[in-house]
Amino acid sequence: MFIAVITIIMIITIMFLIDLFFPKFCLGCGYIGVYVCSSCFKKLELIKQDTCFYCKKPSLFGLTHPNCSKTHNIDGLLTIYHYNPLLKKIIKNIKYRLAVQVWQEFYKIIEPQVILKLGFYKRLSQDFVIQPIPLSKIKYNERGFNQASLISTFFQKFLHYSIGDLLIRKKEISAQAQIKNKKGRYFNVQGAFAIKPDRRGLIYQTPNIIVIDDVVTSGSTVKEAARVLKKAGIKKVYVLALAKG
Fold first, then answer.
1. pLDDT for 5-31, tens place per residue?
2. Sign of the four-CA dihedral 226, 228, 245, 111
3. DSSP state of 24
4. Cα(7)–Cα(1) distance, rounded to whole angstroms?
5. What pTM was computed for the model?
6. Which long-range contacts (CB under 8 A, 24 or more apart) does 29-38 make?
7. Environment class of 38 (CB within 10 Å of its CB; exposed 0-12, middle 13-18, buried 19+)
8. Are the beta carbons of 148 and 133 closer than 8 angstroms?
9. What is the C-alpha to C-alpha distance for residues 62 and 239, in angstroms, rounded to an integer?
10. What is the DSSP letter of 199?
11. How far is the C-alpha of 220 from the C-alpha of 72, rounded, in Å?
12. How many CA atoms lie within 13 A of 218 on its CB side?
């Protein structure tokens, strides 16, 4: 009992010291005390109308239309927020700060509408594996974490699917955000991914994949990931992202 009390006191003391010397600041406006304040959270714009990834026409939960799916690899794209300037600022700051704590806060304040959207996958199939977009070794060493992996853990709290690691980043590429035209982004990411050699045997045990990324803009990155997964034998590839630009 005494040891338990001492442990609790130590934890509280450590948390107090962390807050004292490394206080939380809202990543959107700088408000002290939280990473995403209630005012900024209200300014995030939920995507109310999902569309087909390819033809951009309205689609239930972002499922790819049958005609579009005949010649493309992504079977559906589900996104949560519009990539407005505020969310762009928050995501950029997350990449270089205490990202784990930020996603813990997001989990506590996420809207019921988001949970409802994510529940679509549970109704679609129980047989999914979550696959984060792999980060290059250079960027991983710079940040110490993979943003897509953290978002995968965040979504996993709602979906309860296992997180896989079928993909690896095969080569270093220029940052997609630095390339302004769609064609340039497409060629930049070509050949960037591959199936891990020691995971090839798991392909036929994994019929459905949900690829996770933070933001989908041109879609070149997730397209390339889906192409590699489909070529390897995955039957269905869906994409789930926090934001769509």
1. 565 566 556 545 555 556 778 878 888
2. positive
3. -
4. 10
5. 0.83
6. 34/105, 35/97, 35/98, 35/101, 35/102, 35/105, 36/90, 36/102, 36/105, 36/106, 36/109, 38/109
7. exposed
8. yes
9. 9
10. G
11. 12
12. 17
Q: Are strands 193-195 and 208-216 parallel, antiparallel or unpaired?
A: unpaired
Contacts 24+ apart (CB under 8 A), 100-106: 100/145, 100/150, 101/24, 101/35, 102/27, 102/35, 102/36, 103/150, 103/151, 103/153, 103/154, 105/34, 105/35, 105/36, 106/36, 106/154
Domain boundaries, the chain: 46-244
Say which amino acid occupies 41.
F
- 50-106: pLDDT as tens digits: 999 999 999 999 999 999 998 899 999 999 999 998 888 878 777 665 556 777 777
What number of residues does the chain have?
A: 245
Among residues 77, 102, 51, 120, the alpha carbon closest in space to that of 211 is found at 77
Residues with Cβ within 8 Å of residue 139, at least 6 apart in sequence = none
